[in-house]
Fold these 2 entries.
Entry 1:
Amino acid sequence: MSRIAGRNHLYVPGPTNTPERILRAMVVPQEDHRSPKFPELALSVLTDLKKVFKTTEGTIFTFPASGTGMWEAALTNTLSPGDKILCSRFGQFSHLWADMAQRMGFEVQVLDCEWGTGVPYDQYEEILRADKEHKIKAVLACQNETATGVTSDIGRVRKAINNANHPALLMVDTVSSLVSIDFRMDEWGVDCAVSGSQKGFMLPAGMGILGVSPKALKAMETATSRRCYFDLGDMLKNNATGYFPYTPSIPMLYGMRESLNTIFEEGLENIFARHNYLASGVRAAVQEGWKLNLCAKAPEWYSDTVSAILVPEGFDATKVISNAYAKYNLSLGAGLSKVAGKVFRIGHLGDLNALSLMSAIAGAEMSMLDNGINVTPGSGVAAASTYWRTHAPQAK
Amino acid sequence: MSRIAGRNHLYVPGPTNTPERILRAMVVPQEDHRSPKFPELALSVLTDLKKVFKTTEGTIFTFPASGTGMWEAALTNTLSPGDKILCSRFGQFSHLWADMAQRMGFEVQVLDCEWGTGVPYDQYEEILRADKEHKIKAVLACQNETATGVTSDIGRVRKAINNANHPALLMVDTVSSLVSIDFRMDEWGVDCAVSGSQKGFMLPAGMGILGVSPKALKAMETATSRRCYFDLGDMLKNNATGYFPYTPSIPMLYGMRESLNTIFEEGLENIFARHNYLASGVRAAVQEGWKLNLCAKAPEWYSDTVSAILVPEGFDATKVISNAYAKYNLSLGAGLSKVAGKVFRIGHLGDLNALSLMSAIAGAEMSMLDNGINVTPGSGVAAASTYWRTHAPQAK
Amino acid sequence: MSRIAGRNHLYVPGPTNTPERILRAMVVPQEDHRSPKFPELALSVLTDLKKVFKTTEGTIFTFPASGTGMWEAALTNTLSPGDKILCSRFGQFSHLWADMAQRMGFEVQVLDCEWGTGVPYDQYEEILRADKEHKIKAVLACQNETATGVTSDIGRVRKAINNANHPALLMVDTVSSLVSIDFRMDEWGVDCAVSGSQKGFMLPAGMGILGVSPKALKAMETATSRRCYFDLGDMLKNNATGYFPYTPSIPMLYGMRESLNTIFEEGLENIFARHNYLASGVRAAVQEGWKLNLCAKAPEWYSDTVSAILVPEGFDATKVISNAYAKYNLSLGAGLSKVAGKVFRIGHLGDLNALSLMSAIAGAEMSMLDNGINVTPGSGVAAASTYWRTHAPQAK
Amino acid sequence: MSRIAGRNHLYVPGPTNTPERILRAMVVPQEDHRSPKFPELALSVLTDLKKVFKTTEGTIFTFPASGTGMWEAALTNTLSPGDKILCSRFGQFSHLWADMAQRMGFEVQVLDCEWGTGVPYDQYEEILRADKEHKIKAVLACQNETATGVTSDIGRVRKAINNANHPALLMVDTVSSLVSIDFRMDEWGVDCAVSGSQKGFMLPAGMGILGVSPKALKAMETATSRRCYFDLGDMLKNNATGYFPYTPSIPMLYGMRESLNTIFEEGLENIFARHNYLASGVRAAVQEGWKLNLCAKAPEWYSDTVSAILVPEGFDATKVISNAYAKYNLSLGAGLSKVAGKVFRIGHLGDLNALSLMSAIAGAEMSMLDNGINVTPGSGVAAASTYWRTHAPQAK
């Protein structure tokens, strides 16, 4: 395929743009993962990841795998075949996790919610209260549903469980939220926090990251699900001295080390504030500029990492996306499953600033105009620009 | 840790040295793995990998995982809980695969062989002949046992199965042999060929590669082992159009593309010949120069990718290795499990030439001398040099 | 200095953005520049550079130097102390070349023109006609004055010389025009064409490039200016077999090889068309959107590689630039010398597309608004977007 | 040209092997060299380079140029046409500098010395004593003659000048010695110290580095040699605030920053000790192992950065080199000019350790044997190995 001049403008909600300094840190020769020097790197990464999950009690695991693998690791290491799981479905990724749980042999109670909303906190509480025999062993929650741009409040999920005084494990998908939206593993009592390298960590895909609470580690002892590659026991034993049970990716470890350096330099809270600030500008472009709607039904659900934008009735969002790619070298996220053709998505997470997003806003607008969608030229940029000029990121 | 001047000399049998051009090919910005352009890359990799496995009938799968994950994928996609497996154990890696099979719930018959020998072809045939009811569903074989430097003849394993007229699937671990030692998936009727990126492919670890025969794909339809992350069905469906069910590592795909380019430029048969030529020189250093023994018991078992060298009685191979690392920045492979302390290993696979190995030979010799082992200074290099100067790589 | 999240948006008119593939091509180990293999690279670069200069008769030289060094090489290799030179000054770079000529001991006639205009073709002709004794040995012309965003027509300079029937050498500064704006060394009878790596070639600075006509090479034989590092004779002798008189930069050579590959893939004429297309959009933003003026006085002078934009009376362009850098991580070009504080510059050359420039336009607008300059929010992007959506690049 | 498997073994005395971390540091996007942030980098490099030259009084300049350019800069910035220069010639590089001085219009007194010896200290003193009128304005000395592997004692050159009580400037070529062999700009009263990036700094070629004493800066005020690109005045003015008069190479600046980090981490004195230690092992291989002679006539001249090795009468060193390259992918330095065909050179400077050099020693030996030169197989490695095993680097 012939070269298109200029850079690709990447605004899918993952993989995100890898900063040059992280890209650079990954250009390393291979090295012996059994050397006396190796644990220095491995342990520093495993230890510092705790800060990102906001846990001191938990243990962090990394696997050569995608985030999907961590969904599986969370389930098989803590549960036994036939165990009951409570979860909710309101987008493609909450759907896929529920689906996996069924395929892995668990009994899954799925609450179907309207796409554009998130975890049904009250319904969770109700069901857990009703589960007097504590048959439900795990509660699943997707902190950020990437397909619809919906963020749920994990603190409220914890409260629902606590209100029901229920011992179920709380498992949270943080793939498209960690390091971008506040996540508090210890405070919220999260037992398994599933994540991956290619979103907030700004790395290529390929490192699955899993935060595990002491309670979940204890559950592991009696969990009889078959597992080997994703077995936390093997990992725990080897990690203790700074090694891995099988060959890790050397570039990914160095990349993660540099990602963590980057994160700590900016500061986690500053990063969250920046994501909120950038997301607010994008939402201003969509709502005040273009007069369009988000897929997320209400402000409480708005995601600071991705916005799913509904095109007006009668238009095909798929064409907006394909035209943007072919004509402007702009990669937007597609609508998936139920919202296919209805939304296009702008990922606004990772290593971005306001002017980066201007390309996405201007390009999306141009592609909508090319497709006959009636938005005012320049309106998106004007609204975002006004927001960004008159506000500043606010760390909480 | 302070800098040691000069490069690390990496001669563990994996990860192997990544050539500059492959390292370079991996320095890529992230990109949308759902873009219209993406399949071009993905399909070219999946298709060209077939040539490396010497298969036209088989299907190649790649996963964000290490080779260990592919062991699991091979087993769980084709077998059902309780299925009987025949395998042999003569080193740490053949041991680990057998161990995994047990943990994943299969009934495993393990033939323990002397470390330094390989697959017991005749015993396999005998057992398979005796299995009139065809309870054995899979036969496992490790083409190259990395721990002892032993290569088995997979063609003879196939012959044993055929002689017994047995329908079991043949599963082969090619992790430390593929692209270095001849492997013929179709000709030898291999049903699952397990491999990884960090040996003959000269890439970092992180891409698991699995070759699957039509027969194994058919077995998948009835195999009831729980699987999701490693499910070949999901992969097959997505791969059909050049996509993956979850986010792949963009750098690893570009790296594999460049690895394949490199391989085809040199030519598979030339690569095998080069590995044999280089290994022969290393063996000359060990046997003719140093007057030491290989762990491999007889020439028929000699591996062209790694040599495990027995230190004389009364000496500790571990000290040879740690001293080589600390004093000469040389990474040698350690003895594992049964041969811990008894052998050190020189990996001679991947992107190497004769002079590269001279560093390993000279360094191992220096470290042996430092440890009081009585070898003649310069003898290893002299023997290797004589071999290499008077022979040329012979492609078959 | 602490990290600013997201990329720097680089729109100075050089160094320009280096495409990833060129950056990647430069990650090379050092190599022996006297090896038998080296000439393959060197000769391919020197030969292919001719296509970029549109010369078959000329010779291309490369030096480890910036473009400034090539100004000196052009002068000292072809002229003798006291030789008379005709040139014009209408911006910082035409000024610096004239200044160098004086410092190097030549007798320089400088025609001062209004900044915002270019080479005074008729005045050149007049002066050359008057120079009956042909005391003027060289005529200098700056094809693209980077400081003011003014492009002169080198074909008309040639015509002026021809009309005067004058034998003077024609020396052209193409630093910020080559590979972006059409240049025809042979057709226009250019004797010395001065260029550098960090603009249209999209490389880092550090390689000076000089195109030399047979006539200029002949002049070299009698030119008595002192020179050694920049001596074309030494270079010519070594280049003949593919070598250099002193150690060249290996990464820059590989980078230039990849730059040329990139250029030929897109096609020189397509590149010129793209630059015109992109520049037209930027000018639409300035003139139709913001209602501001360019420094360039008339369309005939408009540069397709850089636009110098006049801020309204009473405002300080320097503050627009420093605020853009500090607040939006946007690098704009400053006004130099006579236009300092009066203009800011947007470089629109090299590896760019429309959406890249949207960041520059949106950012410049935001910074003007922050400084109290009364432009309509979104107006620049709207005008550029309309231009780009309704036009296509036109290769001539 | 088809790929040769494995790395090239680079042992020419420059460019030297660039460590991965420096290579990595150079993979940077371009940036505005006029930005407010830029001086941070530029000033840190210019300041820290002083430590490497061991000067507090001097000023360091860097140019986009090779070391050859710095020869010219030293001469033209401090001398006037016709000024008298005293120098000595005992190899290709001392020859070239003398030749340049003549071509640039100075009156050069060249003392021809036997190749294999170095600066004739006593003769220098004698001539300077005799120059009662102080017509000699500059004394040139090549600290390390790369062509013959000869190091001269610059302290003794200073003593010769002082003994003669002569005011001439002392100019020293440190291209292949700086950062590898002790150099003391202030203590030895060196007025111009010429260097380049591609030897001890372990960078690609392309950055010329020049140390200038206050006395030489004063001489600049009256020196009338024509200069512009290499004018120190322009540079001084711009450097004062952390900028450059023309576009510098961004990657080279970041590379130099990382080179300096590397140097300070290991420690200058430790680096000198390591170079002496490594050189001693190579000399043991040559003299004790192979029973061959160095081009350097006596131990006082032995260079710690490069050894020129004389092949026995009747053999052609050129063939040893070309065969080593073609057959073993080993790059050795060729004999130049008077010693062409008589010597091959092993560069042992930069980022090297003992095992790196084992490849060079083993490869040179193999190539000599291939060419019929009667050396004992393994003898070079044995001698070097014994030296290295029984000695340790000694920082003075």
Entry 2:
Amino acid sequence: MAETGQAQSVGVVGAYSTKYESRSQKEAHEMIQEVATGVFKTVDKGMSPEEVDLIIVSNYSDSFGNILHTAPLVAHYIGNMSATGFRVENACASGTTAVYLAWRMLSSGLFRNALIVGFEKMSSVGSSAKANEILMRTSSPEEYRVGAPFMTLYALMAQEYMSRYGATEEDLALVAVKNHENATRNPLAQLQKKITVEDVLKSPYISKPLKLFDASPLSDGAAALLLSSEPRKYTDTPVYIRGVGIAHDHPGVYQRADIAAIDAARRAAEAAYRMSGVSAKDVSLFEVHDAFTIAEIILYEMLGLAPRGEGYKLIREGVTSFTGSHPVNPSGGLKAKGHPIGATGVGMVAEVFWQLRGEAGARQVSGAEVGVVENHGGTGATSVVLVFSR
Amino acid sequence: MAETGQAQSVGVVGAYSTKYESRSQKEAHEMIQEVATGVFKTVDKGMSPEEVDLIIVSNYSDSFGNILHTAPLVAHYIGNMSATGFRVENACASGTTAVYLAWRMLSSGLFRNALIVGFEKMSSVGSSAKANEILMRTSSPEEYRVGAPFMTLYALMAQEYMSRYGATEEDLALVAVKNHENATRNPLAQLQKKITVEDVLKSPYISKPLKLFDASPLSDGAAALLLSSEPRKYTDTPVYIRGVGIAHDHPGVYQRADIAAIDAARRAAEAAYRMSGVSAKDVSLFEVHDAFTIAEIILYEMLGLAPRGEGYKLIREGVTSFTGSHPVNPSGGLKAKGHPIGATGVGMVAEVFWQLRGEAGARQVSGAEVGVVENHGGTGATSVVLVFSR
């Protein structure tokens, strides 16, 4: 898990994202084409597709979108058949796994410029029951066999966390309220709509204590990044990858040492902070994996923003709100920006790129200097943490 | 595409494969567990799971087997939660893409020991019509939309090849006959049954000129490898990766410069030969991607065994038979050994490992010193070529 040295030179030089939507008019391959070609237009000094020598595609399931073997498709769309490409999958952490691998290979000199494309067209399956079955494929085989949906697994985590530390359903609701409000400032967000604590508390229980409004939506969307080991060739304002961490945990919630933690995120953050020399207090903004509200609260602790058992106090006190001292998910997060799985981690990095370049418009965090992304798969069997700065 | 330098030190030190079957009694996760743990027992001097720092899983589609996020599952099964893992997909070339990436990262010193697990449980979908739709997801979006099955796309290639160069349906049949005979010597093969040219010619046309017996079967199976950058620590007889090449082509057959070629294989082979200093005449045995008989004949030419347009003469003359001067697919190939997609490339490398160590039993190629693997995705939009020797 631990990563050392050599991270200084890799920078993000371009980023592009579709709006995330409940139902995109575009087919999966059209979304891929849009972002793979569109991202080149975002590079300040220009980059030619021929300069890309590495293509990594992030996609969760071919059962969403009915498409596979997408790396050569990207190569075809950008008109460069000499790059090396492949798709990577680590459940909901596929996008940041792609960024992690690109960083690994660029910082070691194996490749020079990487194009990363993430996408998911979840509406293609037509029913949320079917979507749910596909999502459950990322759980442990035992959880899949008993038919435990994600919401139920996160509910187990929430129940244990709340009873142990005294957090309430209102605390969870506050996360949803904050992220929905943030999304009203983000034109790329799926749910650009304010909600109240009452709205959340009145929404139906799906798996107690989690309610409908505690969950992120099903989404269609795609995002792309260009990374370079010579970033200043392409822009005077690259956003550097300063630290990376990737860690795993047992696939089943019930197999873990502490079911009220996301320990892989703690270990990934520790590695990324160590590499970057940054600690949580230095971070201007976080984009974290709030697939369910309880996850964001637990992540406050895993990422070092709060001591163990006190994460929920941050949401009560407004510390992580848009105008707080440590904004979390200024984009709206998975909860309100949306969660097109293969695109999610790629889009998180795009958001930090824009924030650190002062290009985030109405949702710009003032004085943003250091950004952190946490993106995990399933209930936390994989977590990737990335630290960025200008 | 081109790879240079640094390849000397990475070696295969362990290999394990299930028998390939039409319908495995094991579920996908049970196959994964079997090969991920079984491969450690094949390491001569032993390797502890804790020594693995990289896990790469190869799997084609989660629509076969209903399982995702398999890298942490492998970590869980071997009892090592500190390795870095992810799944890779490049259609039917997923397995060798995993080997390529492991080689890249081990030879650069980023990791030391890699566990590669490939699997596919194609019988899980229950019908060959559904399996066919899933296979078609690897074609271009246009080919998918018109509903062109793989067999039809390869039939286009075969039709053009045959009319241009004078190959016949009997020549294609000879490939099937050879590979079925080879499979009778391989206890891991799915179709351990001799067939005659007449059997092939009498089998029904699926897409003229290709008949049922020109195609590889649907298969269940899994395979695993252990690669090390310090191979002699683990065995006195490692099999070294001497050359690698990966290349892409346009996704659609109709988009390619020559539809009777698999040009990505030619370019990948060129790179792998250049890196290894080996040419086709030096190769003791080939394992190549004979998903359809025509592919093997075209590959003779792409891999430099025959001049362009003369590949079919090799099968007529017995050059590539088990006792010929350049045996191709002594394992039985995809055609008769079977083709559990995510396992296929991993299993090909396992076969070469056994052959070069003299451990291939009744199918041992005598005096095997250099082995080459060619594994491609779809109709050739990705090809990986690997050169091995002791």
